[in-house]
């Protein structure tokens, strides 16, 4: 019996030595997406660039699609950072685009086929300022057929390629800032900051129609996503030219996507308990500042009547089968920190002191 056990142990040791556990690559990298690649192709390339015999970079995703024609800021989350990517999916985004007037394409951009043409009226920057003001603020937009949105389990662009047009319900969007400038007699430059779900291609077409003509995008560049800016990106070719160790210096922390400032420090014992999924009573750890933060988030939640409060933290509006949850029981997302000051994940805390672990990292 002892001989068999020794053999098994020796074989296990050899296997462990031959195939040591890999280091999981976790963090956020801001890539300047090149023209001609899909967003998913960029993600695949980044995964490959962070892969090695000792590093696992299989888990990765981006925080908002850019069309193949588009360039610019593409935040990519790796490993544990993917757990928090939705905070940037919901963030405002800024773009700069070029609109070519006088023709419309089936895709709304230069990758499509021209389907109609129209005369271009004379315009100047003063006129463009008036046009821009008409688009500022809350409005509804009908998504384009050439998009990845799904209807009946099928992507819209699949219908479009088959020559089928389907009804698309309008979606609520908000244009926070917009500027139009003349480039020449046929082209205008559009700079816009908008809410999630905004299609700049559709906006360009609508702007052209307001000018009594047609138009489509010939260039699109994303400048900002939430607090991430284009100046902080690295080009894909430049990233590829680096060594693996140099690439790792461009990785931002796993919690970079989270725009929640409030945090709660947990003891070693508490950290162990939340890692096991256990709820905690942290009533004695709620400072006046934390109570004010929770109260403000709840007030906004109750005012807006939805699940997105200030800072995009996810307010869980859990209800009893028969009665609405009491205010002091409404949980608010908060950062969880260990005694060494390291981020360990997100929890949901309420004014009654109950802390529920939500998304914890495993590094």
Quote the CATH topology of the largest domain. Answer: Pseudouridine synthase
Q: Please bin the fraction of helical residues.
A: 25-40%
> What is the CATH H-level superfamily of the largest domain?
Pseudouridine synthase
Low-confidence stretches: 1-19, 306-324
**Rg (CA only):** 25 Å
Amino-to-carboxy terminus distance:
38 Å
| CATH-defined architecture of the largest domain | 2-Layer Sandwich
Helix- and strand-based class? alpha+beta
Largest sheet: 10 strands, mixed
Instruction: Please tell me what the overall shape is.
Output: globular
Number of strands: 21
CATH first level of the largest domain: Alpha Beta
How many domains in all? 3
Report mean pLDDT, rounded to a whole number.
88
What does this structure look like?
Pfam families: TruB-C_2, TruB_C_2, TruB_N. Residues 334-361 form the tRNA pseudouridine synthase II TruB subfamily 1 C-terminal domain. It catalyses: uridine(55) in tRNA = pseudouridine(55) in tRNA. Residues 1-19 and 306-324 have low confidence and may be disordered. The radius of gyration is 25 Å and the shape is globular. The protein is built from ten helices and 21 strands. The chain has 363 residues and is of the alpha+beta class. The chain folds into three domains: 22-90 and 229-248, 2-Layer Sandwich (Pseudouridine synthase), CATH 3.30.2350.10; 93-225, Pseudouridine synthase, CATH 3.30.2350; 263-360, Roll (Archaeosine Trna-guanine Transglycosylase, Chain: A, domain 4), CATH 2.30.130. The relative contact order is 0.14. The strands form five sheets. Strands 2, 4, 5, 6, 9, 12, 13, 14, 15 and 16 form a ten-stranded mixed beta sheet that branches.
């Amino acid at each position: 019996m002892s001989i068999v056990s020794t053999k098994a142990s020796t074989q296990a040791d050899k296997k462990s030595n031959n195939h040591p556990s890999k280091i999981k690559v976790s963090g956020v990298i801001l890539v300047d997406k090149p023209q001609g690649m899909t967003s998913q192709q960029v993600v695949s390339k980044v995964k490959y660039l962070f892969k090695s015999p000792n590093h696992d970079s299989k888990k990765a995703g981006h925080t908002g699609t850019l069309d193949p024609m588009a360039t610019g800021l593409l935040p990519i989350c790796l490993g544990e950072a993917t757990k928090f990517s939705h905070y940037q999916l919901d963030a405002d985004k800024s773009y700069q685009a070029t609109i070519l007037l006088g023709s419309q394409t089936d895709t709304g951009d230069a990758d499509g086929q021209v389907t109609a043409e129209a005369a271009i009226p004379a315009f100047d920057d003063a006129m463009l300022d008036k046009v821009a003001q008409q688009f500022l603020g809350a409005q509804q937009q009908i998504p384009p057929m050439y998009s990845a949105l799904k209807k009946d389990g099928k992507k819209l662009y699949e219908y479009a390629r088959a020559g089928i047009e389907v009804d698309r319900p309008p979606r609520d969007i908000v244009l926070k800032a917009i500027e139009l400038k003349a480039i020449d007699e046929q082209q205008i430059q559009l700079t816009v900051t908008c809410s999630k779900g905004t299609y700049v291609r559709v906006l360009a077409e609508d702007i052209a129609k307001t000018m009594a003509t047609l138009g489509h995008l010939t260039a699109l560049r994303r400048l900002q996503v939430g607090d991430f800016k284009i100046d902080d990106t690295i080009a894909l070719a430049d990233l590829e030219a680096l060594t693996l160790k140099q690439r790792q210096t461009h990785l931002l922390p796993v919690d970079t996507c989270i725009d929640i400032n409030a945090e709660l420090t947990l003891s070693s014992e508490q950290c162990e308990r939340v890692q096991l999924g256990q709820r905690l009573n942290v009533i004695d750890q709620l400072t006046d500042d934390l109570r004010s933060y929770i109260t403000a988030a709840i007030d906004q939640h109750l005012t807006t009547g939805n699940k997105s409060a200030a800072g995009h933290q996810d307010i869980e509006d859990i209800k009893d089968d028969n009665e609405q949850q009491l205010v002091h029981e409404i949980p608010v997302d908060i950062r969880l920190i260990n005694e060494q000051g390291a981020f360990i994940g997100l929890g949901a805390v309420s004014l009654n002191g109950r802390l529920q672990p939500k998304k914890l990292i495993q590094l």
